[in-house]
């Protein structure tokens, strides 16, 4: 990639030519730093850039933050169609001003009024497909069941939300000329987006990995764990002792709050093994059931409960699989987990931020994912949010998820830990945008399947 830096009065124009990706992003960083040192406003002319990854976007947003703090301005112009789509998907247009060309950008940079010309995202909301088991297996090596997929706080679909869905579905049926003789289920399944015919749900983080073993394997104790516990009792009965292996990513409340409501913990004969890399696991779970926060003390549980402290990067055999914890970037420390069985792997990585400018950090995380079939990934924020307002909040984005999974050769990316403020229509739109971003960035490589997790989703590996 070539970059020219020129001065026009109080404005420095940075003009890159070629792809802005992981390899060339440091060059853009250096050019923007040179422009910042000039002390004026900056115009980034992208007319000769056919492609931009999250690394290039990070460099531009970082420059914006520096200039904004100094009372200076930055604008973009000349975006090719695909680059404009990437900026829209990443939410960059909500942070930066984008113009068709230099002539329209200059008045904004010198303080005159000018309008933003960012375009709306293309496409309609996408569906959230269930995964298919590999064709060469009668039984999956691993089955992933999502019991809770929200981040930070459980949410519920209220009466207004239900009414809105019903109204939109009826309107769609009227437009389609649906009659009593038509197949109603076929209409719902093929003509309506998932976010309209169903819901992504509101339970907080809880994911089961079924290895086919008699012992259960569960990740996090968000509110979805309550339903998991009740389902286990319905399937196996309260009189059948079972072992539950629970792995905690970290000890923030949204990931442990369901344990006081975890029905198997009340039943004598059950064995509950709570695994994690935090030495304070037991203290955290006991403390949340102390007065004045909770009316029922931890001692009410009748199951055999034990806490097992793990060491990062040391694999442990559990429930017929191998589970390997690894450290992640999140306040109070978070740990992801890789589960391997019979040559198939799934990675559970929530509450993790990724500093894409840190090559060592990126390379290390890519090694964790390498060879995995499915990655459950924290995509709570837009890329623009992770680089600006919500930087250092410990979460990631859909765009970064695509980039990391493509680097690691992953087959399927599952968007997870959804922002509580996002309704079903918003999650549909994010899925559609993420698939489009994957398509733009695919090049000649094999496709990366992108799925948005919802409560009740089952994926076979």
From TrEMBL:
One of the entry's Gene Ontology molecular-function terms is:
anti-sigma factor antagonist activity
Query: Which ranges are annotated Low complexity under compositional bias?
Result: 118-132
Q: What is the lineage of its organism?
A: Bacteria, Pseudomonadati, Pseudomonadota, Alphaproteobacteria, Rhodospirillales
Which PANTHER family does this one have? Answer: ANTI-SIGMA FACTOR ANTAGONIST TM_1081-RELATED, ANTI-SIGMA FACTOR ANTAGONIST TM_1081-RELATED-RELATED
InterPro entries to which the protein is assigned, alphabetical:
Anti-sigma_ant (IPR003658), Metallo-B-lactamas (IPR001279), RibonucZ/Hydroxyglut_hydro (IPR036866), STAS_dom (IPR002645), STAS_dom_sf (IPR036513)
| Name of the protein described by the UniProt record | Anti-sigma factor antagonist
Domain named STAS: which ranges? 1-109
What the record says about family reads: Belongs to the anti-sigma-factor antagonist family.
**SMART domains from the entry?**
Lactamase_B
Q: Which species is this UniProt entry from?
A: Roseospira visakhapatnamensis
Location of the region described as Disordered in the Swiss-Prot/TrEMBL record: 112-135
Classification via Pfam families: Lactamase_B_2, STAS
Query: Cross-referenced Gene3D superfamilies, in alphabetical order?
Result: Ribonuclease Z/Hydroxyacylglutathione hydrolase-like, STAS domain
